[in-house]
TrEMBL record:
Gene3D superfamilies: P-loop containing nucleotide triphosphate hydrolases
Protein name per UniProt: ATP-binding cassette domain-containing protein
Lineage: Bacteria, Pseudomonadati, Pseudomonadota, Alphaproteobacteria, Rhodobacterales
Family in the record: Belongs to the ABC transporter superfamily.
Family annotation (PROSITE patterns): ABC_TRANSPORTER_1, ABC_TRANSPORTER_2
Pfam families: ABC_tran
Keywords (A to Z) from UniProt: ATP-binding, Nucleotide-binding, Transport
ABC transporter domain span: 17-249
SUPFAM superfamilies with a match to the protein in the record: P-loop containing nucleoside triphosphate hydrolases
Domain of life (superkingdom): Bacteria
PANTHER family: ALIPHATIC SULFONATES IMPORT ATP-BINDING PROTEIN SSUB, TAURINE IMPORT ATP-BINDING PROTEIN-RELATED
């Protein structure tokens, strides 16, 4: 991907997000109430990149589904762009771990699907869709079917589909979790470049501490279930960030260490015994 725009040059175009004392409970088949989120409060500024990490079952995906309008909080405040969120938000785009591309449609047609669903001018958006595909290394693949692409290529197409309308809020649920290490690294670099160009708000769910620190302005660490915020960590590193160089940066190592120590205090990670 090639993009010379920085976030400051592009200017933030995202929307703010506010969560106030959000609680989410599920009822099991036996009638037992399971609390997934417990009093979670978070303010995200327009154009900010937030990464959320936490152990399995801590409510990360539940939180993302609430923000996407796919689920509702049991109690608490959820606002997007200063207004209460009461369903799927027109400013939100979602990328899941699975790409969910429609197998009978071409890659280009998959990218343009949100345009068609909203009744917008498909033809007018074709150049933008083709440019997005080129930006993520898929130039010339628009006529291919998803079955003809690798997993990483399909995930790139899924990201293009999510941002074709330049959403003010991009929600990403472990989008790189199923990729091999090299493909994951390139996708992380590509996502950073896209975000710097668009300037939108991103909430990124991951199990990877390194990718969270590399990508984010702030890393939010959730406790084991029920999910609460254990750490809200600012990452003070200049952009654009380079993968290899970032790992040698003292600020990167400081942030990695703080997140790991948070997990160690909770018993999620254990130090080697010697």
């Amino acid at each position: 991907m090639t993009s010379e725009l920085t976030r400051d040059q592009a200017g933030p175009t995202g929307v703010s997000v506010r969560l106030g004392a959000v609680v989410k409970e599920f009822e099991t088949e036996t009638g037992e109430l399971i609390r997934a989120l417990d009093g979670l409060s978070l303010d995200v500024a327009a154009g900010e990149f937030i990464a959320i990490v936490g152990p399995s079952g801590c409510g990360k995906s539940t939180l993302l589904n609430i923000l996407a309008g796919l689920d509702r909080a049991s109690t608490g405040l959820v606002e997007i762009g200063g207004a209460p969120a009461r369903g799927p938000h027109p400013e939100a785009g979602v990328v899941f771990q699975s790409d969910y591309l429609l197998p009978w449609r071409s890659v280009l047609d998959n990218v343009l699907l949100p345009i068609e669903i909203k009744g917008l001018d498909r033809k007018a958006h074709v150049p933008a869709a083709e440019q997005l595909l080129a930006d993520v290394g898929l130039a010339g693949f628009g006529a291919k079917k998803p079955s003809e692409l690798s997993g990483g290529m399909r995930q790139r197409a899924g990201i293009c589909r999510a941002i074709i309308q330049k959403p003010g809020l991009l929600l990403m649920d472990e989008p790189f979790g199923a990729l091999d290490a090299l493909t994951r690294e390139q996708m992380i670099i590509d996502l950073q470049a896209l975000w710097l160009r668009l300037g939108n708000t991103v909430i990124f769910i991951t199990h990877g501490i390194d990718e969270a620190v590399f990508l984010a302005d702030r890393v939010i660490v959730l406790s084991p279930r029920p999910g609460r915020i254990d750490l809200d960590l600012k990452v003070d590193m200049a952009r654009p960030r380079q993968w290899a160089e970032a790992h040698a940066d003292p600020e990167f190592q400081r942030c990695i260490g703080e997140v790991r120590r948070c997990f160690e205090r909770r018993g999620v990670l254990h130090r080697a015994q010697g």
